[in-house]
Amino acid sequence: MDQILFATGDKPEIVVDLVGGDLRLTGWERNEFLAESAKMRRCPGIVFADGATGRRARLAGTGLDVWEIIATYQSLNRDRGRLQTAYHWLTEPYLRAALGYYAAYPDEIDQQIARNAALTREGVAKQHPTLVLDDPR
């Protein structure tokens, strides 16, 4: 029996039986999995990853979250040419994927941008002490 195991952070693994198509998931896992699958199908080039602030959309193979690209885009007055210069190592299809995802799910990305903008050194140190040095010098 062919299976795929999906790691979901501190949650149990999600098992997908490729032969029978049996998804043995709890209700919230099934909903999250199906919602993310639908988003990835709608927006090719997008995957989902766990992180310190929860699951988020990411450009496949880059390590860059969509919110990071869009925050930069907004800071550049929505100038695509300047965005391409800022991310000169990304090809046009990658940037189109991020912009397309934002066009489809603006509230999700705007919330992530706001959440990250609200982070403080003290808040990060309290929640993730290993990410902050005691002496910032």
What's the SSE blueprint?
Blueprint: E1 3-8, E2 11-17, E3 23-24, H1 27-42, E4 46-49, E5 56-59, H2 66-75, H3 80-86, H4 92-104, H5 106-117, H6 121-127
Antiparallel strand pairs: 1-2, 2-3, 4-5
Helix pairs in contact: 2-4, 2-5, 4-5
Structural notes for this entry:
This protein is of the alpha+beta class. The protein has two domains: 1-42, no CATH class; 45-120, Orthogonal Bundle (Arc Repressor Mutant, subunit A), CATH 1.10.10. The chain is 47% helix and 17% strand. The chain is built from six helices and five strands. It has helices at 27-42, 66-75, 80-86, 92-104, 106-117, 121-127, and strands spanning 3-8, 11-17, 23-24, 46-49, 56-59. The strands form two sheets. It has a three-stranded antiparallel sheet with strand order 1-2-3, with no helix packed on it. Strands 4-5 form a two-stranded antiparallel sheet. A hairpin with a 5-residue loop joins strand 2 and strand 3 (23-24). Helix 2 packs across helix 4 (92-104), helix 2 (66-75) packs across helix 5 and helix 4 (92-104) crosses helix 5. The longest helix has 16 residues, at 27-42. It is globular and about 45 Å long.
Give the overall shape.
globular
- Multimeric organization: single chain
Structural class: alpha+beta
Order of neighbouring strands in the sheet with most strands: 1-2-3
Task: Give the SSE order as H and E letters.
Answer: EEEHEEHHHHH
- Strand portion: 15-25%
Write down how many β-strands occur, each being a DSSP E stretch of 2 or more residues.
5
CATH architecture identity of the largest domain = Orthogonal Bundle
Would you identify the regions where 5 or more consecutive residues have pLDDT less than 50? 1-19
